[in-house]
Amino acid sequence: MMLNRRFTPLNLLMLSINGMVGSAWLFAPLYAAKMAGSGALMAWVIGGLLTAIIALTFAELSVMFPVAGGTAQIPHLSHGTFTSFIISWVAWLSALTMAPVEVQAILQYASTYFTSLTRYENEVPVLTHVGLLWATILMLVFCIINIVSYKGLVRSNFALFLFKVIVILLAIIALMKTSFHTSNFSDFIPAASSIAGWQAILTAVASGGVAFAFTGFKHGVELAGETKRLAFAIPLAIVGSVLICLLLYIGLQVAFIGALQPEAVAHGWSNLSFTGDVGPFAGLAGGLGLIWLMKLLYIDAAVSPSGAALIYVTSTARILYAMSQIGYVPRWLSYLNKPGFPVAAILTNFVIGMFLFLPLPGWQAMVSFLVSGMVISYAMGPIALLCMRLERPDEERLFKLPAASLICLLAFYFCNLLSYWTGWDTIYKLAIAMMIGLVFFVVAILKGRLAGTSLGLRSILWVGPYFAGLILISYLGSFGGKHIIPFGWDFVVIAIFSAAILYLAVKTRAVLGEKFADPRLAEVS
Q1: Residue 523 resides in a domain
Q2: How confident is the model over 457-473, as a mean pLDDT?
Q3: Which range marks the domain in which residue 298 is found?
Q4: For residues 413 and 462, what is the distance between their CA atoms, to the nearest angstrom?
Q5: Least CB-packed of 22, 248, 489, 516 within 10 Å?
Q6: Is the separation of the CB atoms in 80 and 454 below 8 Å?
Q7: Is the Cβ–Cβ distance between 165 and 248 less than 8 Å?
């Protein structure tokens, strides 16, 4: 059975935006402001533009190779089995965490009225037995919608999309109209003109929820195998969603900073807090007497994460589905039901995802790990694009990225910067997760699931130096490391490192004729 081309360009755009606008918009403006003050505005611009440049590299690749689970399939074509496994493992692990985190956010918000849902351990809210029961119900609902009905998925997505965007626009307009203090933006220039200010801004990009807020653009990559009118739909969904959300996030950050009472930041932005509320916007609305908006935000605090969780259940299943087709995980995980949905992958993700409801280290700490993992999978975009330009120069390209060499170099550099900015504490945890993944790869080899396929050992020669270099630079750097590489010089070090690794990765690419499956021969009808 094959996956069907079912998503229109508008469907895919709304799916991508819906996947981006989850709990991030409710938290990120607060965390970014606490880290960078009014310089948080610069953090959003940097995060959005960097993500858009990275997304451009995937636009050409996903139109050229329209497959389900492109995160796993495309690296498999450009660099073979071993490289593809590492990239898809990290991407799947990061994406798998998203739906449970959003569901936990829903229940954390609901605990304002239903206190039996959560309890606090070391000042971190964790789910009670009642909360875990409701988490199971919500996760099952999202899975059922994904399994049973394409129309149900699209209609649910449209309703959630429409509600979320309307609430965001109402919040921006109402807050700016009711209270707007221009004095709160007075530290924008100092923040943007000092070393400490820039370091705070860049930390906010990686760890304050800014980069996390844009991760949804990859939904277009994972769902390309089920999309109509590829040459128009993929660039629109991948790049268009980033730019549209950037405008929404900048509007929210401006409204948030402007609505704050000057006394609230008199003792420093890092001391800004909202006690006993669902989120900063609800706290602001209540303090300004906008009770109608506060109630609406309480509702949206459940709706926004629901939309994101629903879409992540959809796209994460496609990554696991692709991993199964290649042979990294058991073949039965690529089973499709009668309507053509990867039901085995969806249900497996549900079971594994339920274990992630064990006490988590808080929203912000999870964001740093997720961003670091996602960025590793982003790095394959510019690498694979340059490889395909060299290996398949005469291939028809319905969408062709201009100035590809320059954009790919910049995109790869930006990926490494984003990963570095998450800090040493996050990088070393990611390294441990990757080591665990290698155990599963060895099992796949021993089980014979990769028999007859070249492992691509030559094509992985760049991977060891890449990850070792990232870990070493992070350890020596100024973002949670030993500060041996001072801030400013680390940009130069990462630039040289990125250029060298990109050259090595392209040089060791898989050549035509090696026994790697062409993903375009996969299940597309």
Answers
A1: no
A2: 88
A3: 9-358+365-517
A4: 15
A5: 489
A6: yes
A7: yes
Residue predicted with more confidence, 213 or 475 = 475
pLDDT at 234: 80
Q: What is the CATH number of the domain that holds 506?
A: 1.20.1740.10
pLDDT digits (tens, 9 = 90+) for 328-355: 888 888 888 777 788 898 888 888 888 7
Is pLDDT larger for residue 441 or for residue 363?
441
Q: SS3 for 7?
A: strand
3-class DSSP string for 237-304: HHHHHHHHHHHHHHHHHHHHHHHCCHHHHCCCHHHCCCCCCCCHHHHHHHHCCCHHHHHHHHHHHHHH
Q: Which amino acid is at 12?
A: L
- CA pair distance 147, 25, nearest whole angstrom: 28
Phi–psi pair at 481, nearest 5 degrees? -95, -155
- Cα end-to-end distance, the chain, whole Å: 10
Taking only the tens place, the pLDDT of each residue in 379-433 is: 888 999 999 898 888 877 777 888 989 999 999 998 898 888 878 877 887 788 7
Structure tokens at 32: 């970014």
Report CA dihedral (323, 325, 331, 335) to the nearest 10 degrees.
100
The CA dihedral of 477, 483, 489, 494, to the nearest 10 degrees, is -10
CB atoms closer than 10 angstroms to residue 40: 32
| b/e map 208-238, b = 16+ CB within 10 Å | bbbbbbbbbbbbbbbbbbbbeebbbbbbbbb
Do 188 and 40 meet the contact criterion of CB atoms below 8 Å apart?
no
Number of domains into which the chain is organized: 1
Distance CA 133, CA 92 (A): 25
Per-residue pLDDT band for 257 (boundaries 50, 70, 90) equals: very high
Average pLDDT of the residues of the chain? 80
In a domain, 525, yes or no: no
Q: What is the mean pLDDT of the segment spanning 60-64?
A: 80
Q: Give 439's contacts (C-beta < 8 A, 6+ positions apart).
A: none
